[in-house]
Amino acid sequence: MSLSLVQKGRLGETAVILELQKRGYDVVNLNDGLSNFKNADLFCSSPSSGKHTLIQVKTGFTNNILTGLVSTNKGEIVGLEEKITCPWVFVYVKPDFSFQFYVLTRDEVIDLIKISNDWYTKCRVTELKDNVHVGIDV
Q1: pTM of the predicted model, to two decimals?
Q2: Are the C-beta atoms of 103 and 46 separated by less than 8 Å?
Q3: Residue 46 to residue 48: CA distance in whole angstroms
Q4: Residues near 133 by beta carbon (within 8 Å), at least 6 away in sequence
Q5: Best exposed site among 68, 86, 120, 122 by fewest CB in 10 Å?
Q6: What is the pLDDT of residues 22-77, one digit of tens each?
């Protein structure tokens, strides 16, 4: 079975929603009303505290989960801090379709992407190209 990118993303979003609901949170998938809501996928609220937050979900079927960001040939990430506006959940879908969740704050996501991209650009043997997709190893 081969899933499209949209289907893979929906699978990860659904897994996160179910996990949050198991923990007592109310969750709405923002992509149900809008096609690809900007910089967030889920709206999550805590009935007990009344607090709420947006969540961005990134799903991968390999150890390298793409972030939706690109890097220039100089190793600069285009729009990094503007595009990361909320906590992120990275979802690694294992071959047996079990899930691993990695929950990071906005600042942790930014730092992780910077560190990972710096390492990648310094370890390259070949010249960097423009518009290279930035991924995170899990």
Answers
A1: 0.90
A2: no
A3: 5
A4: 66, 67, 69, 70, 71
A5: 122
A6: 999 999 999 887 666 778 999 999 999 999 999 999 999 998 999 999 999 888 99
- HEC assignment per residue over the chain: CCCCHHHHHHHHHHHHHHHHHHCCCEEEEHHHCCCCCCCCCEEEECCCCCCEEEEEEEEECCCEEEEEEEECCCCCECCHHHHCCCCEEEEEECCCCCEEEEEECHHHHHHHHHHHHHHHHHHCCCCCCCCEEEEEEC
Structure-token pair, residue 70: 């690109």
- In this structure, are strands 99-104 and 52-60 parallel, antiparallel, or unpaired? unpaired
